[in-house]
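Let us practice reading a record.
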Amino acid sequence: MSRNQILANLRTSLASNRPWLEEVSRSAPHAPPPFVHPPAADLVAQFCEELAKLEGRAYPVADGEEALEVIGRLLDERNARQVIAWDLEQIDLPGLPALLAERGVSLLDADVQGPGRKERLQTLEPVAVCLSGVDCAIAESGSMVLRHGPGRPRLASLLAPAHIAVVRRSQLVRGLGEALALLRERHGATLFDATSHLTFISGPSRTADIEMTLSLGIHGPPEVHVVVV
């Protein structure tokens, strides 16, 4: 069955079930999920602590200059000469383009849609680092929320072995309910107009499906580095 046939079948199924789905949505509770932990005095410290429990690494820094030093060190340690990244203006870290240029690090086009997709993915596969911003970060779970779309490719948090994310302190919220409310406030009904992807990242990819043995990096990056500015 072709891709177009599969999508056409999905559209037909959704159209026929839409009244029932809308009724289920209206009847479901919409109160924000309860908080997991008691209030924390320092959301940055809580986020870093929870991320560390998940095998992720956080780097709280004082300013953008120190953030660039951390990113530069991470790139050097992985001998990165190419990265898959969000558009740099969407990461919003002044000096980042100059840092990459000084190290001879080039940005690869992460658009793999259309004919030749397999070949473009094979070109991106050897890249050691992906680089992104976030929409917000959840302190209680050490999670990052990324809304994908134009200039924010999903591969920039998924494909390379090491994912470096830049989080602003102003983007930290306490719990999942606050994160969802922030997204509703910011985007409203247009949240999925430009994309179908909203990703929650809680540490490196992990699975214990095989003999209950925990393995990192099966479905995504085995390394997650978060620079908190």
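A brief commentary: Residues 1-30 form one domain.
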